[in-house]
Amino acid sequence: MEPPGGGAVTDMTVLLNALATVVNYLFQIYFYIVIARAIISWVNPDPYNPIVRFLHNATDPVLNRIRRVLPLHFGGFDFTPIVLLLALEVGRQLLVGLILSLGSMGGY
Length: 108
Description:
It contains 3 helices and 2 strands; from the N terminus they run H-H-E-E-H. With 108 residues, it is mainly alpha-helical. The protein has one domain (11-103). The two termini are 20 Å apart.
């Protein structure tokens, strides 16, 4: 089977394309978790709610690291999630692009 750009489709190409898809989905899921965390911070959620606890446990380690490096609290607003969302998007594009380029090069 020939891909549109020419060259043969190898097992490594298929594997790397599948890996890129999985990595892309993982970044997207975490992106939405960060958005949900930011939205619940606007209200006073029950801290014992399992969903709230999950969102805090999934995002606080990363957000706290960013807060230590870049204190982004202005006027009662925390802009740290925005920095994390931007970093996630850049990281997603770089990593998925790298994996896809490895797949298009034949795996090496």
